[in-house]
Amino acid sequence: METIDQMTGDQADDDDSPVVIVEDHHGLFAEIVIADHRWLDLLDGDFRARLAAAFRACLNKAGIEAAEWTILLSDDASVAELNMAHRGKNGATNVLSFPDDDDDDFLGDIALAWGVMEGEAAGLSISMTDHALHLMVHGVLHLLGHDHQDDAEATTMEQLEISILGSVGVADPYDEARE
């Protein structure tokens, strides 16, 4: 999609940004573009297996068999540029989602900011792996049409996240007792 292409076009040519594919045999295909190499340490085999299972759970809950999307794992500055260009907001945020309504099989793009994610994980005393899984699931749920603009939407989305993350061994990210 155009959003990820804007952020990776020149970068990918200059430094050969690695790409990781997460897929299963049932039509799930996620291309992960690693524009910030700090993300590489998180993407071991166990993480990718848990991520594939979480992504499959997202699709199953939406009643979708097959779908594709792209994830950009980047730095705060690049995500801040996307945030300003597409939302008119200053600064980086943890995750941005850009649904693609033009293609039935391609859901859209997600971008994550390393520094924001790292700071949040430290502040919440949770592992980077668990927080990254949470943010990626959160982003996919946005691509699938979920939102948290009002209390009812937020509750529905949070319950989906808790269920999906629990299925891959991630504790409830909204458990206030944890904080």
The rounded distance between the terminal residues' Cα atoms is: 37 Å
The first-level CATH class is given as Alpha Beta
CATH fold assignment: Collagenase (Catalytic Domain)
Poorly predicted runs are 8-14
Most strands sheet = 5 strands, mixed
Number of strands: 5
Report the helical percentage: 40-55%
Provide the CATH superfamily.
Answer: Metalloproteases ("zincins"), catalytic domain
Please provide a written account of the structure:
This protein has 179 residues and is α/β, with parallel strands linked by helices. It has one domain (2-170): Metalloproteases ("zincins"), catalytic domain (Collagenase (Catalytic Domain)). It has helices at 2-15, 45-62, 76-87, 114-124, 128-143, 151-166; strands at 19-23, 28-34, 67-74, 95-99, 106-113. Strands 1-2-3-5-4 form a five-stranded mixed beta sheet, sandwiched between helices. Strand 1 (19-23) and strand 2 form a beta hairpin. It is globular. The protein starts with a helix and ends in a 13-residue tail after the last helix. 35% of the residues are buried.
Task: Summarize this structure briefly.
The chain is α/β, with parallel strands linked by helices and 179 residues long. The protein has six helices and five strands, in the order H-E-E-H-E-H-E-E-H-H-H. The chain has a single domain, classed as Metalloproteases ("zincins"), catalytic domain (Collagenase (Catalytic Domain), 3-Layer(aba) Sandwich), CATH 3.40.390.
